[in-house]
Design goal:
Layout lengths: L6 E12 L2 E12 L3 E5 L6 H8 L7 E6 L2 E2 L4 H7 E4 L11 H11 L4 H14 L15 H13 L5 E5 L7 H16 L4 E6 L2 H7 L2 E6 L2 E6 L1 H7 L6 E8 L3 H8 L4 E7 L2 E6 L4 H10 L3 E8 L3 H12 L7 H10 L2
Parallel strand pairs: 3-8, 3-9, 6-7, 7-8
Antiparallel strand pairs: 1-2, 1-4, 4-5, 9-10, 11-13, 11-14, 12-13
Helix pairs in contact: 3-4, 5-6
Length: 333
């Protein structure tokens, strides 16, 4: 994230305590205009509490949060006009159609009737729900409800959109459509989007940056590539190479390459450990020795692996929230 980018969300020392429990612990975070930022962590990490403070639905114990220069505590009404919030389970009236639900939202936001109808039609098309707009929402799939949730949020044309677990329980096709829609909102319309989620793979696909959130603290923040580099163990690289035909001869060829310290094989998959990035060398080697390259990819740059490496590097024990973290990582492998 370049520092020259206009700051849209600024959080300084944001803290929320419930009795002796600290849900969010002195959070520091800046998000730029038009950025998609993923707040990532296991359930109970403090993600939802953070989004509630940003939307003015709960007050912080300490610290400040600003959205487009407005104080989330003192300027609550102005913030609510700027921010669209989409909870993890969007509530709609099931016996009303998608169009009728959007009309209800328009009325709540004081939109003039002709403008509301024009915007509803545009948003139903935009979210791929034009044919389902006059169907009762009770018949919608989870993915359709989530896309209607995006349309609902966009009714007031917000500059910032906060989404809590938007991809939860959606089938692969619905996921693809929703992620494409979210990406378009950022890239084409320059809206700032904050996504709170525990689904690592989906976050990795769409976000410009991610923050790893554990026990109320932001333990790491950056692009996936930056986090991978920060947690890389002893500057070692691991690369998966798939070739045809696969044989022991190719294993020996790989072992002889400069910088390679280990080679493992499973079928046509070779796992190559090296002390530097040798992707180009590996590709050239495959072709030079008459093999066909099926695939070549660096390993260890997925968010689940980054998360695991972070905790190993930090030396966390198995107590308290670390069990949640392990379950969180295990579910996302």
């Amino acid at each position: 994230m370049e520092m020259t980018m206009e700051r849209m969300i600024e959080i300084h020392g944001l803290t929320k305590r419930y009795g002796n429990k600290t849900a969010v612990d002195h959070l520091e975070l800046t998000i730029g205009r038009g950025e998609i930022f993923g707040l990532l962590g296991p359930n109970g990490a403090g993600k939802t509490t953070t989004t509630l403070m940003l939307t003015g639905l709960t007050e912080p114990t300490e610290g400040t949060a600003f959205i487009n220069g407005m104080d989330c505590v003192r300027d609550t009404m102005e913030v609510k006009r700027t921010v669209g919030y989409m909870p993890d389970n969007v509530g709609f009236y099931g016996d009303m159609t998608g169009r009728e639900n959007l009309r209800f939202t328009a009325a709540l936001n004081g939109l003039e009737k002709s403008l509301a109808e024009e915007r509803i039609e545009e948003l139903l098309i935009r979210t791929g729900l034009s044919e389902a707009g006059d169907q009762k929402v009770g018949t919608y799939s989870r993915g359709m409800r989530q896309r209607l949730g995006v349309a609902d949020v966009l009714m007031k044309d917000p500059e910032v959109i906060i989404m809590d677990e938007p991809t939860l329980g959606i089938d692969p096709e619905g996921m693809r459509e929703l992620l494409a829609l979210i990406r378009d909102l950022s890239r084409r319309e320059n809206r700032t989007i904050l996504i709170s989620s525990h689904q690592l793979y989906q976050i990795q696909q769409i976000c410009d940056r991610v923050g790893l959130f554990v026990k109320g603290q932001l333990v790491a923040c950056g692009t996936v590539e930056e986090l991978a580099e920060q947690t890389r163990e002893e500057s070692r690289y691991l690369t998966e190479v798939c070739v045809a035909p696969a044989d022991d001869r190719f294993t020996e060829i790989l072992k002889a390459l400069e910088g390679v310290y280990s080679v493992g094989r499973e079928g046509n998959r070779y796992m190559v450990g090296s002390d530097q990035n040798i992707n180009n060398l590996l590709a050239d080697t495959v072709l030079e020795h008459g093999y066909s390259l099926t695939s070549l990819r660096p390993c260890g740059n997925d968010l689940d692996e980054i998360y695991r490496r972070y905790f190993e590097k930090a030396g966390h024990d198995d107590g308290s929230s670390n069990g949640k973290v392990k379950r969180f990582i295990s579910r996302n492998r």
